Amino acid sequence: METGMDFFACILVKTERSQEELRDCLNNQKFIPAKNHEIVETEVIKLQSIQLKTKYVEHEEIEFGTLKNEVNFNDYYVLIIYDGGYSADFDISGH
User: Fold this and answer.
1) 95 falls in which pLDDT band (50, 70, 90)?
2) E strands in the chain
3) Which of 29, 50, 53, 88 fits a disulfide with 94 by CB distance 3.0 to 4.6 angstroms?
4) Does pTM top 0.90 for this prediction?
């Protein structure tokens, strides 16, 4: 089993903006990757339930407990910033 180092951040937002507007806003930001030659990936997900489904989370589940009584997820989005694929020895916290 190969281990690696990934950096993942997400935020839950409730907004009347469209998914495209949020994606444009996120993509217009200049995120600095851990290594200069790498690219920071971004994703905007329209939430369908309290559980986040994304390709960036493989071994855990992310649930937004504050939304457990919510039935209408129309205005909820998750903004993700991901920088990963580094070897485990890239950073001491990767061991």
Assistant:
1) very low
2) 4-14, 41-46, 51-52, 62-63, 76-87
3) 88
4) no
